[in-house]
Amino acid sequence: MARKKIALIGAGMIGGTLAHLAAMKELGDIVLFDIAEGMPQGKALDLSQAGPPEGFDANLKGANSYEEIAGADVCIVTAGVPRKPGMSRDDLLGINLKVMKAVGEGIGQHAPDAFVICITNPLDAMVWALREFSGLPHQKVVGMAGVLDSSRFRHFLAEEFDVSVEDVTAFVLGGHGDTMVPVVEYSTVAGIPVPDLIKMGWSTQEKIDAIVERTRKGGGEIVGLLKTGSAFYAPATSAIVMAESYLKDKKRLLPCAAHLTGQYGVDDLYVGVPIVIGANGVERVVEIALNEEAKAGFDKSVGAVKELVAACKGIDGSLG
Ligand code: A3D
């Protein structure tokens, strides 16, 4: 059986980490695509030379032309620019929307059968626009945010309870941003819901509330520490989990930005919800019951995504 092909569109901090992880896990051959000349080729060569000591077999190639992604099984998109001081969210939206147009058209033309994972921010609007520009089926285009936000929540909970992260499950739903909704009722330690753990004296409501708040601001905390750039190890690892579920038909149930067609009362928007990812892409959107507070938070988050998508439509008339 021929190796799978993984195209990484954007070879910056997350793109390079994705390439490293995909090679270490032998998920397939890898193309690192970027508009910067030389950089993706340099990273590909460096990573190729990590193969002999580590013992992985994968061909890694750097590219500046979309022809090189031809026939990719998975495309992971991180192309774009980060928000710089003095740049408004709208400025960022306009710039990255243009990037999504180029990337979407490139994928649509050269890798129309791929499973596409978008990471570029603002995530929920960019994945929606990327799908529009690519013309790919909705179930083959998803956004990575929920796995990362849930991982942050799981990490903080594991620390608080002093247990293995392996035994902590958690869900963060809604849009990726300040309005995301960490759902405490569905977060457990080996099946024991967090509210029960509070009753058992493992923690207090105040401490869990503080963890929820820290999760919401998890990205910003890292930006503040790094000074330049944003998180890249955990975002890349989270996207690899999604790619693996598709490539190996694992049918994992993961919180991702998925296209909704009436579920959760939302139509034609990408929002973070639990989905099953298998060989057909998004195989199921899972509708869980939300309590009043979580539902209100989710609706607020959907409102924020709606505004961003409306702004995209305002910038690019073809998205009407
Ligand atoms: P960075 O290291 O700047 O890499 C982005 C790369 O995109 C650079 O190498 C650019 O040269 C390249 N690029 C720019 N325009 C194009 C284009 N038109 N075609 C191809 N490549 C292009 O950023 P990063 O890797 O740290 O982050 C990438 C994106 O992920 C940013 O938008 C971040 O905001 C976003 N991000 C999202 C999350 C989520 O949880 C959703 C988390 C962390 C980062």
From TrEMBL:
In terms of CDD domains, this protein maps to:
LDH-like_MDH (cd01339)
- Annotated Lactate/malate dehydrogenase N-terminal domain ranges read 5-143
* Annotated positions binding NAD(+): 10-15, 34, 96, 119-121
Catalytic reactions on record: (S)-malate + NAD(+) = oxaloacetate + NADH + H(+)
Q: Which GO terms describe its biological process?
A: lactate metabolic process; tricarboxylic acid cycle
The protein's matches in Pfam families, at most eight in alphabetical order, are given as: Ldh_1_C, Ldh_1_N
Q: Enumerate the GO terms in the molecular function aspect.
A: L-lactate dehydrogenase (NAD+) activity; L-malate dehydrogenase (NAD+) activity
EC class of this enzyme? oxidoreductase
The EC number(s) this enzyme carries = 1.1.1.37
Record's keyword terms, sorted? NAD, Oxidoreductase, Tricarboxylic acid cycle
Provide the binding site for substrate: 83, 89, 121, 152
Q: InterPro entries under this entry?
A: L-lactate/malate_DH, Lactate/malate_DH_C, Lactate/malate_DH_N, Lactate_DH/Glyco_Ohase_4_C, Malate_DH_type3, NAD(P)-bd_dom_sf
Lactate/malate dehydrogenase C-terminal domain ranges (all copies): 148-307
Q: Which residues form the active site?
A: 176
Please describe what this protein does. Catalyzes the reversible oxidation of malate to oxaloacetate.
Under HAMAP family, the record lists:
Malate_dehydrog_3 (MF_00487)
Per the similarity annotation, which family is this? Answer: Belongs to the LDH/MDH superfamily. MDH type 3 family.
Q: What is this protein called?
A: Malate dehydrogenase
Tell me the name of the encoding gene: mdh
